[in-house]
Amino acid sequence: MTDLPWLSILIAVPLVAGIACLFVNASAARWIALVATLADLAIGLLLWASYNPDGAQWQFVENMSLGGGIAWALGIDGIALVLILLSVFLMPICIGASWRAIERRVPEYMSAFLLMEALMIGVFAAQDLFLFYIFFEGGLIPMYLIIGIWGGAERIKASYKFFLYTLFGSVLMLIAMLYMVLEAGTSSIPALMAHDFPVEAQRWLWLAFFASFAVKMPMWPVHTWLPDAHVQAPTAGSVILAGVLLKMGGYGFIRFSLPMFPEGSAMFVPLVFILSGIAVVYTSLVALVQRDMKKLIAYSSVAHMAFVTFGLFAFNRQGIEGAMIVMLSHGLVSAALFLCVGVVYDRMHSREIDRYGGLANNMPGYALLFMLFTMAAVGLPGTSGFVGEFLALIGTYRLSTWAAIVATTGIILGAAYMLYLYWRIAFGAARTPEAASMRDLSAREWWLLAPIAAVVLWMGVYPESFLRPIRADVGRLLTRIERAAPEGDSRFAVVRSTAQPQAHAAEAAH
Amino acid sequence: MNAFAPILPELILTGAALVLMMVAAFTRSRGGGLVSWLAAAVLIGATAALIGAPSSAGSIFGGLLAADPFGAFGKALIFPAAAVAIIAAHGWFERGTEHEAEYSVLILFSAVGMAVMVSATNLITLYLGLELLSLSSYVLASYRRGDDRSAEAGLKYFILGSLASGILLYGISMLYGFTGTMDFAGLAEAFGRGAPSIGLLFGLVFLLSGIAFKISAVPFHMWTPDVYEGAPTPVTAFFASAPKVAAVLLATRTCIEALGPATDAWRQIVIFAALASIFLGAVAAYGQTNIKRLLAYSSINNVGFALIGLAAAGRSGASAVLFYMAVYVVMTLGAFLCVLRMRGADGEPLESVDSLAGLSQARPAFAAALALFMFSLAGIPPLFGFWPKLLVFNAAVDAGLVAVAVAGIVGTVVGAYYYLRIVKIMYFDEVPSPIVRTRQPVEGVLILLAALLVSPLGYLLIGPLGRLADRAAGSIF
Prior knowledge:
The structure holds two protein chains of two kinds.
Chain A: H1 6-21, H2 26-50, E1 59-65, E2 71-76, H3 78-101, H4 106-125, H5 129-138, H6 140-150, H7 155-184, H8 189-193, H9 199-216, H10 225-232, H11 235-260, H12 262-267, H13 269-288, H14 293-312, H15 317-348, H16 359-362, H17 364-378, H18 384-399, H19 401-426, H20 433-436, H21 443-461, H22 464-481
Antiparallel strand pairs in A: 1-2
Helix pairs in contact in A: 1-2, 1-4, 2-3, 2-4, 3-4, 3-11, 3-15, 3-21, 3-22, 4-5, 4-6, 4-11, 5-7, 6-7, 7-9, 7-10, 9-11, 10-11, 10-14, 11-14, 11-15, 13-14, 13-19, 14-15, 14-18, 14-19, 15-17, 15-18, 15-21, 15-22, 17-19, 17-21, 18-19, 18-21
Chain B: H1 8-27, H2 32-48, E1 58-60, E2 65-67, H3 69-90, H4 100-119, H5 123-141, H6 148-179, H7 184-191, H8 198-215, H9 223-230, H10 233-240, H11 242-258, H12 263-284, H13 291-312, H14 315-340, H15 359-362, H16 364-378, H17 386-398, H18 402-427, H19 441-454, H20 462-474
Antiparallel strand pairs in B: 1-2
Helix pairs in contact in B: 1-2, 1-4, 2-3, 2-4, 3-4, 3-10, 3-11, 3-14, 3-20, 4-5, 4-11, 5-6, 6-8, 6-9, 8-11, 8-12, 9-10, 9-13, 10-14, 11-13, 11-14, 12-13, 12-18, 13-14, 13-17, 13-18, 14-16, 14-17, 14-19, 14-20, 16-18, 16-19, 17-18
């Protein structure tokens, strides 16, 4: 199993298929894309099966120097593994969602998506700082094309905004990377994770990385590209944007900001908490008044990602594990919600909430699945959303009770805007005759949504499957950052050091 | 004979240029094709002749020239770029009405001038090389005599170029007057004797201003958009590639070898020119509707990044400059080869940016290649144009110029906009493309090669190209 360069294969399959797509007609391109993404899913599951959660930190390691200070170095730990799984799981669904919705320039479309997949996997698998940056930034090009060519009416503006915003965030990170490589003498990410940078420098390095990841995440106030990009992107574009691209920000915090600059991270906890607190409350309120379904879900993404930043910068096991589960859960749930919007959009070509209504009558299957995902977004126990948010809130509470109070309002507001959305769409009487005459889910759409629904429930009922691979890595991260961990204000509840293995909070989720 | 072995490439070029001029004179327009192909072959031959003494003999002719790896690296970029400019022109000029034979000869002469520029270790040889290039360039810019814009470009270039040469000469005379030597080593010694006198500083500033004109760095860039727009497109492709390499390498060698001890004096000038070029190149390109003008600003912008490597002043900085110029030449020639293919239904060359609209559907491969060059010029990974930018910023951070690196990298974001605009016009605007299909297999192959080089496959070259650049940069310290 380990003698083949599996991670390179995982990247190469969509890349080769993406190039092949350019030379064939629309129908062949669709099939090539589907087969390639399913093959990648199979390889991903194979990796999961053969990943040893108690083994070495980095597994499936490959290293080939390209000279000049950059190496084709790949390798994954549990955190990267679950995010790669999320990517390969969502990709076939994206292709399926575009099967009929995309009619123009299909070969280029499929090619852009496959290229996107290769770059996303590369981001999570890269073990060389510059290789990471190349994958991280490279993803801008296919997404720019996807939004710009196949997007809605305002697509041009949205594509520029997406590109320039994220580019601006990232270039500062590049300067920080150059400094780090000169300072530490290596561009290997595992080596840098163990390198202690001077505390004074950490502050600037942390801010430079923060600029990039905060835009990617996105955090308030640099989130404004997200609603535009989501609304204008085609359905599958929104799915991949919400499902995977936003996770790159959280992954960056776990992989770079926390282990490489523990003191810097600790210093800026108040900044992160304040921004996240504002994001939770403000974007939830904004979501409440949206008339456009996609925009509503986009704003809810910003609010949910704030739970991730709360959890990550809580400096304890519950917080970080919770943040990881929120990322996975949000990746699935927001992807599913965008697909649900896509389903009705394909029928009526409108995202206006006011034009729907009463869908529970004529689309019972759709209403059922939409209900499940709405509940998961709200964080109902039994769904993946609950596990992640609960753990993240425990973690936040242990560091700052005030932050936990603000964050918890997000759950209440989240329930408000999601249920309000669901009520307006699914219940009552149809507001337009077109809405009343829409047909229920087709077999293809069932195939797209049912797997996500199954995983959402699985993660909600037995999160251990997803926590097991990351537990050891979160432990390593905690031993790395505990020296800088800020004092919590809730010590009456927990007096022991955070690094000791302790009864796992995930149990509470059952 | 051995004394001349180190300048074998220059001898080949000079001899061939003289012979081909005779051939051109006697065959008239019939010999155009023959002369073009022969000239291109001679340039490739001269590149091959760089191996051996021309890249390793060291200082020759009493310190007038240096046959070192640095010069050889430059020539290995300049000669093939000049060859591409000849091949590109061959299919472009209308047959019979223009003497394309003389065009090739002029390119050969300018190649000799550029070869002298990158090897010069004496202010007089520096000036001679520069003037040989410039005089050929003035004629090339006005090559389409019947075209008003071309004549205007040639005249503008000549007047402003002469002014710049005058400034350069004035600087040289100051330096000579205050040090008593024209030799780079002697100048370095004079500058090394402590804080430079006012006279030396004046000489340094004038010298650098004259060179900045040739690089078209801000604030001496004003001629660039006009000349690039007016000159025939193959000539523009030539101006944007080989002479840029020669001028940037000349600046590097002069700053390091002759003015090395006065680094503090010239560093601030170079930093200003670099940042001003980056930002002006980026901002001024926004409103351009002519693709040649736009690429002119793109070249100003790109030269700014190369100058950041020079500002770093160390070995890694010089190496980054060389690496940058190598990739820059490929990207620029690729982009211009694409522009050369833009022809309307009546066979007339198209130059407006808007005429690219709808290209991705009419000519997907062409559009993809141009998009690759645009993303690469913008420095967006995973394209290869990203790596040289990373190297120059790395050198700047290494030299402690973090603020300069941050400012420069913010400039890449500003500049990204107009490169994206071209991609947007080609890919997002859905109108019938006015560009017709042309049959130019050689140019097609060249575009394909350039596209492969700037694609992520280029990263495989980091090792070997980096070693060559390091070795070349090491030879001027």
